[in-house]
Design brief:
This protein is of the alpha/beta class. The relative contact order is 0.18. Strand 3, helix 4 and strand 4 form a beta-alpha-beta unit. It has a 7-stranded mixed beta sheet with strand order 1-7-6-2-5-3-4, sandwiched between helices.
């Protein structure tokens, strides 16, 4: 069953990557086409894993506002869960390792995903510029402030890159809590456990302008508190 899920995930990823690369090569890439492909890809991955997804308070968030979306990160299944839950155009900031996968990496760049390499300051600054442009064009940017998937399930310390982005652009931060994806696939796991239930909770947006650069740590703590609020006690860190 694990091999079946992994092979299906590869097939579904190829189905959206190959045409996206082809469209990009001939200058026919469109944001709406990428949106449709990401929606189809994420929906199929969740269907194949028989995940029952319940998203809460999504309707309370203004549909016409672009956010810096921040969530906890426990599993690769967080990615399709985010795309299926929020009901808006979202692109993610992803570590540079994901951009080394042939075809998928080219498709990610063409679709507007943001690569970040924390070991390369110049590249990190360029990534910030791309993220700013996307926000200005109405695309929400999803960042996992932990920087990686939690191996224990506990919330890890937050990195500051996403908070810099919010402060520099003035975009509000949308705190999101994901519960249950770890039971489907562990951070370092290869075994998919189908049939699980996943909850996604959307918190009240946080306005970085109310904090400013002088109170950046307070901003970080406020966002962390809103994400933590819906986590089970054993995962609150």
């Amino acid at each position: 069953m694990t091999l079946w899920h992994l092979s299906r995930a590869i097939v579904e990823t190829a189905k959206i990557s190959v045409p996206t690369v082809a469209d990009s090569a001939i200058g026919r890439i469109t944001t709406s086409a990428c949106d449709e492909r990401l929606d189809r890809w994420s929906r199929r991955l969740l269907d194949q894993a028989r995940i029952q997804l319940h998203a809460y308070d999504v309707d309370s968030v203004p549909a016409d506002e672009a956010f810096v979306v921040m969530s906890n990160h426990q599993s690769l299944y967080d990615i399709p869960v985010i795309f299926q839950s929020l009901g808006r155009r979202v692109r993610m900031v992803a570590k540079t390792e994901l951009f080394r996968v042939p075809v998928w990496s080219t498709a990610m760049r063409a679709a507007g995903f943001v690569e970040v390499d924390r070991r390369d300051r110049r590249q990190a600054i360029e990534s910030l510029r791309h993220a700013k442009t996307a926000l200005a064009q109405g695309t929400s940017i999803w960042i996992a402030p932990e920087g990686t998937r939690s191996r224990t399930g506990k919330l890890l310390p937050f990195k500051k890159g996403g908070f810099h982005l919010a402060l520099e652009t003035g975009a509000r931060i949308l705190p999101v809590t994901i519960v249950g994806t770890r039971d489907v696939l562990l951070a370092d796991g290869w075994t998919v456990h189908p049939g699980g239930t996943v909850q996604l909770y959307v918190g009240q947006p946080v306005d970085p302008k109310e904090f400013g650069t002088e109170q950046k740590e307070a901003l970080v703590e406020e966002v962390r508190a809103r994400i933590t609020r819906r986590l089970p006690p054993q995962h609150q860190g």
